[in-house]
Design goal:
The chain has 146 residues and is α+β, with helices and mostly antiparallel strands. The chain has a domain at 4-78: Double Stranded RNA Binding Domain. Helix content is 33%, strand content 23%. The chain has three helices and six strands, in the order αββββααββ. The protein has helices spanning 4-9, 60-75, 80-105; strands at residues 17-22, 25-29, 35-43, 46-54, 126-127, 130-131. The chain has a four-stranded antiparallel beta sheet, covered by helices on one side. The longest helix has 26 residues, at 80-105.
């Protein structure tokens, strides 16, 4: 088992070095001085490595908690790296959604119109099957009639 003191005292060496903690988790010491938390595991008959964070931003206690969370997922037959990839993809889709909303609210000259009697384009949200019905920003009565 690692201790925080041992981690702080660990110095970089010529080649990468692993300081093990148990349960497949280790601290990878890089020659450039970087300290990275990793966890080796098997899922679907394949050896995989999960990145848990960078020391000291992720403490020993935090890394152990992340290891336990990953082990719970594995016990339920879920690949922790697949969960992380899905979350990353959902975040990317969210950014794309916000960009489409901004573009759709922009005026003809590309400048979004605001309050004060200026004309404002209706909000349309791009969904998986295409564009949603058009809703007016000025009334909450539902789809505008075009």
């Amino acid at each position: 088992m690692l201790t925080d003191t041992a981690i702080r005292k660990a110095k970089p060496v010529a080649s990468p070095l692993k300081l093990t903690d148990g349960g497949g988790m280790y601290l990878l010491l890089k020659p450039d001085g970087g300290k990275y938390w990793r966890m080796n595991y098997r899922h679907g008959g394949k050896q995989k490595t999960l990145a848990l964070g960078v020391y000291p931003l992720v403490t020993l206690a935090d890394a152990r908690q992340r290891r336990e969370d990953a082990r719970k997922l594995l016990a339920n037959g879920i690949d922790p790296s697949a969960i992380r990839k899905e979350a990353k993809e959902a975040k990317r889709r969210g950014h794309r959604l916000r960009r489409h909303v901004r573009e759709d609210r922009a005026g003809v000259d590309g400048v979004a119109r605001g309050q004060g009697g200026r004309q404002q384009r209706p909000l349309r949200i791009r969904m998986a099957g295409g564009w949603s019905p058009t809703y007016s920003h000025t009334s909450a009565s539902g789809p505008s009639q075009r």
